[in-house]
Amino acid sequence: MGEPTTKIGGSTRRSEDKRFLTGQGRYTDDINMAGQTYACFVRSPHAHARINSIDTSMARDADGVLAVFTGEDLANDGIGGLPCGWQIHDVSGEPMAEPPHPLLAQGKARYVGDHVAVVIAETKQQARDAAELVDVDYDMLDAVISPAKALESGQPLVHDEVPDNRCYTWELGDSGAADEAFERAHHVTSLDLVNNRLIPNALEPRAAVASYSPGEDHYTLYTTSQNPHLARLLLSAFVLNLPEHKVRVVSPDVGGGFGSKIYPYAEEATLTWASKKIGRPIKWTAERVESFLSDAHGRDHVTRAEMALDTDGRFIGMRVDTKANLGAYLSTFASAVPTILYATLLAGQYTTPAIHARVTAVFTHTAPVDAYRGAGRPEATYVVERLVSQAARDMGLSQAEIRRRNFIPTDAFPYQTPVALNYDVGDYDATLTRAEELADVAGFEGRREEAQKRGKYRGIGYSTYIEACGLAPSNIAGALGARAGLYEAGEVRLHPTGKVTVFTGSHSHGQGHETTFAQIVSDRLGIPFDDVDVVHGDTDRSAFGMGTYGSRSLAVGGSAIVKAMDKIIDKSRRIAAHMLEAAEADIEYDDGTFRVAGTDKSLSMAEVAFSAYVPHNYPLEQLEPGLDESAFYDPTNFTYPAGSHICEVEVDPDTGRVEIVNFTAVDDFGNVINPMIVEGQVHGGLAQGIGQALLEGAVYDAESGQLITGTYMDYTMPRADDLPSFRVDTCNTPCTHNPLGVKGCGEAGAIGSPPAVIDAIIDALRPLGVTDLEMPATPLRVWQAIQDAQGRQVA
Amino acid sequence: MIPGRFEYHAATDVDDAVRLLAEHGADGKLLAGGHSLLPMMKLRFAEPAHIIDINGIADLRGIREQGKALVIGPMTTESAIIDSELLQRRCPVLPEAAQLIADPQVRNRGTIGGDALHGDPGNDHPAVLMALDAEFVIRGRKGERSESVDGFYVGPYLTALDDGELVTAIRIPTPAEGHGYAYCKFKRKTGDYATAATCCLLEMEGDTCRRVRLTLTNVGPTPLRATDAEALLTGSEPTAERIEQAAQAAMSICNPAEDLRGSPEYKTHMAGEMTRRAIHKALDRARRG
């Protein structure tokens, strides 16, 4: 890598970091408005309870209290609940069960942390103190936490109108073809897998400041959203019935989302409604315990998976049966995560010809579950890669060999999988070859022997994952049940002085868009990086947007900006032709300069921009003045980042502690705009994936439904000393269908890494007879697996 | 994370703190580093009406050698203990244990007194101070008294300290020159309490173990002293077999509660493993002098 440039491909330092690192960031909780009040939500202490009555009189009389609202007040105003953004159809052909998702509980609380009432007071302290005075008369009811158990007859119902707690059963793929493959299989590998439930834990907790201006009949909501335009659309059209043009939603600096801030939540909707009721702005900032209890959780699948192989170790069929925990209510994308974003990825990087998946989505008395970094794709990768690694052991093939025998070859693209997706491009062998080199797989046996001498068991695990990013062609998404389009909007405005403001519907909450997008603009328009400003997160400034999730910002949002720049360059060419007194066809454009072909007559982009705003010598008959273009980009396909992760662990058999001694990730992200930012994204994703594999797991008490892992003491987030120095590289094949050739990198680390970690541990403990292990592989679990295996060997 | 309403008092000296404690009785809580008390208050699990802040009392800080004892002020931070050249030289097990507590931010505020006197069976100093035969110097309205650490812990969050009393010093008999020491702590991650931990202090005379202390953290309602294990090693050569027997004896007194760190069986095994490791490490150090 040469001198960092600010063009495409340069590791430009992140311009946003100046304000983040000097305490100048402006987060929602930093926003203060004149006359601001504070809200505190009263939450259910029970997992399942009937609410007989709510006595708010003591709280209303407390110092500084302005109002106390309950679900009854919302119902009286005709306020609806939170909508689900994706309709899945049951195998019966009926739409999924969609029980109401009220902002404040209506008659029943359905998980610990469910919103029951809100207290609004002059100060945060007064609101918090008065919340304790709200007297809720509950009848505690039995709760059900496990999705498998919730499906059994006689279990408590989360929603009376949803029998068996079953939201839907959904299928994908050809079950006949899959069954036929299993009938003729030489070998079948089967696994029972649990994808552990995770709590997102963004550094910044959710927060909102809502206000209403009666003079203009206008609402303003500052909130920690990954997609402010979507928040405005859903709040105005579906929740509060407000005129969309009278609502402004601003997501200022946001400190991490990982999916948990995609969805509109009860808090900001309630605040927006209540700000008009009391005629004052209202602020709410989640306490960390509230984040644990009420941010949408992730994963939580239980799966039976089988792989059919022929005598050569080729995959001939796959069957998957998954139970997905939705929690108590349908969060915005909850229904799509275990279906569209999951089962469609079960082909992985392989030519498996026949695949069938069946998914049963289940309500339980737990917090809603929705997309979390990777969203469905980590779950799919965990199923596929655990099966592949186990199949290799079953068949006596090396981890690399079984994969190479089954990779989709480079000449097979575009490749139609049996589970709906059409992969545009990839070179799976290339990333695996590079990963094996970088991981020094050749030297592994030596390292294993050396570790053995120290009493440690060393193992190596592989994961060759694929994901589908860049959501999504709107027509395909619509056919699959999406209730929104999934394009992105961008606007590029050249100012008379040649400076540029870019407006995007993508939202940056850690991704570094302000830098990456500015590099693209600087590169294409030949304008200095420092002269480009990227604006996002405000419905009054960016025309529209679908926001940031699913590693879509660059592939979709970046493409919209490129489309807008294409319009800028087209118009500029015409202006330049006029100014240079040449035919348009004779104007060549390169790196910000318009030149009459074969001459030294040229104009810079800045000169053209000046002329566009001071149109004295300008083709006014043919062209409008000004240089400001916008575009919407709707992708024609998903993008398919893929890669090879290799994990090397050492296990202390006496304690069960696992140390990750090496972790190698070689990814294919398509073209890379800023390698440093990409590497940072990979590091973050790996930390979350390794966290899932070794440490994290939300635990609810099976009887009481209390969240046992409700603080950082109990929910073990990974820390720096749990992680090695990652070995990271890319082997890129440009995406064939978007103008930048990019694929997306935000989720890859979290998607690819968990099975590599688990299989490394299984590999390490093979000499002790361990054949399976559940996530998170805590010292307790690993030690227990060793004890059980030793017990079996003795018996 | 907003605590309930409370009255804040900044004690100016020990007498003032004793007076404030007497005045507010069971409603008053001493504030040391705040890393146990404040989170409990923010969660509203604890709602003391009066907070008596003793951070301003200089007399309660510091580490000094006094005759054949080391005297540590209870308000001495974990960081100060880790950085103390005197302790590194005379009593290195204390810096070793302090280094394993929580994380740097907590260690910069958290104090040895706060850790040792809270009565949380997960805290690390109690077992270490017990192994060191330390005593607490206690002041109350009735005057001053001393209480041995061994016997001080009655149950979870229950100690021999009465309402209205505070500890003004921790007195540790200076360990013998060349003693062996180790605090082996097994935890899920940095910042966690021990799944199990063992403190071992020993003095060797040739191949014979003349004196040994073995204490355990977080495998019972209080820190535990493994006296049977000590007896197995005292006066004999600590062979691998004897060390194994001592570890088994230590395991036999464990009575841990089940939680996310593990089952009682697992925690007991980890206590055994930490005991093995602590003895070996202490022996190595004693032999190296």
How does this structure look, described?
The complex is a heterodimer of chains A (795) and B (289). Chain A is 29% helix and 22% strand. A seven-stranded mixed sheet of chain A has the order 3-5-1-12-9-10-11, sandwiched between helices. In chain A, helix 10 packs parallel to helix 19. With 289 residues, chain B is of the alpha+beta class. Chain B folds into three domains: 7-53, 2-Layer Sandwich (Uridine Diphospho-n-acetylenolpyruvylglucosamine Reductase, domain 2), CATH 3.30.43.10; 58-173, Uridine Diphospho-n-acetylenolpyruvylglucosamine Reductase, domain 3, CATH 3.30.465.10; 180-288, Enolase-like, domain 1, CATH 3.30.390.50. The chains are: A alpha+beta (795), B alpha+beta (289). At the A-B interface, helix 4 and helix 20 of A face helix 11 of B.
What's this model, at a glance?
By secondary structure, chain A is of the alpha+beta class. Chain A is built from 20 helices and 28 strands.
The coarse overall form of chain A would be: globular
| Distance between the ends of chain A | 58 Å
- What is the name of the CATH superfamily of the largest domain in chain A? Aldehyde oxidase/xanthine dehydrogenase, molybdopterin binding domain
How big is the Rg of chain B?
Answer: 19 Å
Low-confidence stretches of chain B: none
Q: Report the span from N to C terminus of chain B.
A: 50 Å
CATH architecture of the largest domain in chain B: 2-Layer Sandwich
Q: Strand share of the residues of chain A?
A: 15-25%
Order of adjacent strands in the largest pleated sheet of chain B: 4-5-10-6-7
In the CATH hierarchy, what is the class of the largest domain in chain B?
A: Alpha Beta
The profile of the biggest β sheet of chain B is: 5 strands, antiparallel
Low-confidence stretches of chain A: none
Overall number of structural domains of chain B: 3
Please, how many helices of chain B? 11
Beta-strand residue fraction of chain B = 25-35%
